[in-house]
Give the backbone structure.
Amino acid sequence: MKNIWKKLEAFFFSPISASGFGLMRITWALTGLISVFLRWPDFVWLYTDKGVLPRSLIGESFGTLENWSVLLWVDNPTHLYALGWILVVALIATALGWKPRWAVLVSLILLTSFHNRNVYALNGGDRVIRIIGFFLLIAPELRAFSVERLRTQWKSWEEKRALLAPLKMSIWPYRLLLWQLILTYVTTGISKYQSGVWAGGQAVAIALHHTHFARFSRGAMDVFSLSSPVMSVFTLLFDASWGLLLFPKKLVTRFAPTLASMSLKRTLIVFGTLFFHGGIFVLMDVGTFSIIMLVAYCGLLIDDDFRAIRAWFNRRWKSKPIALLYDGHCILCRRSVFTLLLLDHLKRIRPVDFRDSALHKKEAPDIPFAQLDRAMHIRFSGGRTEKGFDAFRALCWHLPVLIPLAPFLYIPGVPPIGRRVYERIAANRDRCADGVCRHIPKR
Amino acid sequence: MIHRTIVLKLLVVAFCVWHMTTIGFLSVAATVKGSVAEWVDDEIAPHFVEYKNVLFRQHQSWRPFSNPERRVRTYELDTAVQGGWMLAASITPEALGWRERSYNLKLVRNLFGSKTKNKRRQTAYVHMLCRREGIEPDTRVRLRETSFLIPKEEIEHTLTYWHHWVPEKKMKTVLTTRCPDA
C-alpha cells in the first residue's frame, strides 16, 4: 500500500518548474487579447439581438448549463462593450500576472460567455483557448513571470544580492495538459486516417486550395500543394507519435532505438512548432488555432526542457560568465543589474559589486575606481571590456529577450545618442527622482 | 486521523483520474468513427456531458480537422432595383479584410454550409447584413451563393494538373427576404 502511495505521489506530485505554466499564462492571455480585438468592431453584429443571432433564435439550451453566458442578460451595446473592456483588463492582468488566479477566472467566464452567445463564429482555436484556460485556473502555481513574483525577487535581490530559485509546482496539471494534447492528436489522427484523404495524400492539397483559408495566391498554393502526399502522411505520423508518449521510454526505445538519445516530447514540440502548426499558420488563415496550440506547448516545458533549451543556445558559448561591474551603493544601478539578471535566461552574467574592494581587485584591478564609478562595465573572460552604452549593447546579444533590439543599436547615429543618454543618466544618478540614490561610505 | 495533506492529495488524484477518464471517453465518442466509438457515445459519454459543459465548454470533438472541406462557398447580397438586382455586399475572402475574414467566413460556413439548415437563423443573418450595410427597410434582397468543389481522387499532384484545373462554379439564390427596420 505504501509503495502504491509513493508511486502515486511521485506521478502526481513531483515538483516541476512552474515556468512552463507561467509562459503559458502570458501567451494564453495575449492570444485571448488577439481574439477579442479581431472581433471588437463587430461585437454588435455578433453578440446582440440586432446581429447575426438574436437570443430568441439561439434555442432552449441558451442560458442553461450547456450554454451558459453572462450575455444572456446583455443586449445594450454600451453594456456589451463594457463587458468587453472588463475582459480586456482581465486578460492584461493575466498576462502581467497581477492577481493571476482571479484574472484567469474572470477572463475564462467572459470568454466562455462570448463564445456561448454566438457559437457560429467560433473556430477550433476558441475551443482550445477555453481548455487551456481551465488548466490555468486549476494550476497550483501561476506566479512565474508575474509582477507579484517581481516584488519578491526584488526583495531577495536587495537583501541577499541573489535572485530566488525558479518557482516549483506539483506535476499533476502538466500531466492533465499532456494527456489532453495526446488525446487531441491521437483521436484526430485516427479520424484523419479513417477519412482516407490523408493516407491517400490529397488532404493538404484540398486544404490549401480552399480559398477561405489560403493566405497566398492560387499560383502559390498550387506550388505548395505539390508536397501534399508527403505532408499528408507526415501529419498522420506526427499525430500518431503523440501516442508514444503514453508508453515508458524504455519500452519505446526497445522498438525504436534511435529515440534512446532524444526526448520524444521535445522533438514533437519542435516539429509541431516549426513544421506543423507553424506551417499551417504561414500558409493558412485558421483563426487563432495555430497560435493557441503553440501556447499549449509552453505548458509542456519543464525543468529538463529549459535546461536543454539553455544548453542549445549555449552550445557555442564556451567562455566563463561575463563579469558585470556595478555600483552596489546606487539604487538605479542595482535596479538595472536586477533587470539584466532577470533577463539572463542563458546564465551568462555574473554581477560584481565594485564597491567591494576585494572583488574589485580580483575582477578588474586595471580599471580605476573613478572610471568604474562613471559607468557600468562588463568584462568578458578573454579580457575584452566594454562600458556604458557599449556594455549594454554587447549584453543584448546574450539576453534572448533583448536580441531583437541589438541590431538597431548599431544603426549609424544611434550609438552617439545612446552614449550621451547613458552618460547623463549615470552622472545624475545621485539625484534620482525617488530621492533614494546616495553614496554610502565604505564600512 | 488522516493528515489533511494526504486527504487533499487524494482529492487531487481522484479529480485527475476523473478528468482524464472523462475527456478520454468524450474524445473517442466525438472524434473517432466505428462501433467502439459509437458504443462509447451511446453508453458512456452521456454521463459526462454536464461536467464538460459546466467546465467552460470542454468540447472534445477533434473531427473537423479530419476531412478538409472540399466545397468552397461564397456569398453576395443583392438589393432589388428597377427590373434587376444590384450588388450590396460580398462575403468573400477577397472582399473581407484580414481582421474579419476568419470568423466571418466561419459564420457563413456554419449557417449555410452545414447539413442542418436553420431558415430563421439564415434570415436573421441577412437582416443583420441589411442593418450593417444601411439598406433601406422593406427593400427586397437576395443572398446568392457561388460554390465549387475541390477535387479529391482526381488530384495528380503536378503543377500542370493544377494549372489546368478550373473550378466549376455553381450559383444559386439561397434566400430572398425584405430588410427589417433598423
User: Anything to note?
Assistant: The longest strand of chain B covers residues 71-81. Residues 4-31 of chain B form the longest helix (28 residues). Chain B touches chain A through 66 residues (CB under 8 Å). DSSP finds six helices and four strands in chain B.
